[in-house]
Amino acid sequence: MKQPIAVPQDYRCPLCVNHVDEVFYASILIDQPICEGCQEELFLFEHHKERPADQLIEKMEQLTGLTWDDCRVVLLRDTLETWRTIEHELPQEYLDSVAELGWTQDRAALEAQSKVLWYAQLVEQAETESLPKKTG
Ligand SMILES: [Zn+2]
Fold first, then answer.
1. Predicted local distance difference test score (pLDDT) of residue 132
2. Most-buried pick from 10, 49, 87, 99 (CB within 10 A)?
3. Is residue 85 in some structural domain?
4. How far is the CA of 111 from the centre of ligand 1 (A)?
5. Residue 75 belongs to domain spanning
6. Cα(131) to centroid of ligand 1, in Å?
7. Structural domain contains residue 11
8. d(CA 18, ligand 1 centre) in Å
9. How confident is the model at residue 76 (pLDDT cuts 50, 70, 90)?
10. pLDDT tens-place string over residues 1-10
11. What's the 3-state SS for the chain?
């Protein structure tokens, strides 16, 4: 699971430079750490089939030089990898988080398995959608 990373004291998130943030994560798309808020928003957006009209997405396209469809494939692959790791390692952090829901370890393992299948499917769909634009 993703852990926050340390940044210099006056560091600003490259996706939302106009305000100060406290918690930052490494980005899979750009070399600079991004803030928790942007990270969470991107996570929500990667589940949208259609490109949401949002400044954050425009900014990400500018910074990466990629289309949102391509960014989305990268983000979804990363989420899939995260779930694969959870499925294999069943980290305590994950077990603790689902223990609050009253889940047993078996239930948690099943859920991780189904997330892997679900994200594998999303990755496949997103790849098919982003490819034609690249070649055509
Ligand atoms: Zn941000």
1. 66
2. 87
3. yes
4. 30
5. 24-131
6. 28
7. no
8. 9
9. very high
10. 678 999 999 9
11. CCCCCCCCCCCCCCCCCCCCCCCEECCCCCCCCEEHHHHHHHHHHCCCCCCCCCHHHHHHHHHHCCCHHHHHHHHHHHHHHHHHHHHHHCCHHHHHHHHCCCCCHHHHHHHHHHHHHHHHHHHHHHHHHHHHHHHC
Ligand 1 center from residue 132 Cα (angstroms): 31
pTM for the full predicted model: 0.90
- For residue 133, the model assigns a pLDDT of 59
Cα of 21 vs centre of ligand 1, distance in Å, is 7
How far does the centroid of ligand 1 lie from the alpha carbon of residue 5, in Å? 14
pLDDT at 136: 47
Both structure tokens of 6: 């340390």
Q: Tell me how far the alpha carbon of residue 82 lies from the centroid of ligand 1, in angstroms.
A: 21
Distance 72 CA to ligand 1 centre (A): 17
Number of domains making up the chain: 1
Instruction: With respect to residue 13, please indicate whether it lies within any of the assigned structural domains.
Output: no
Residue 16 CA to ligand 1 centre (angstroms): 4
The answer as to whether 54 is a domain residue is yes
* pLDDT band at residue 19 under the 50/70/90 scheme: confident
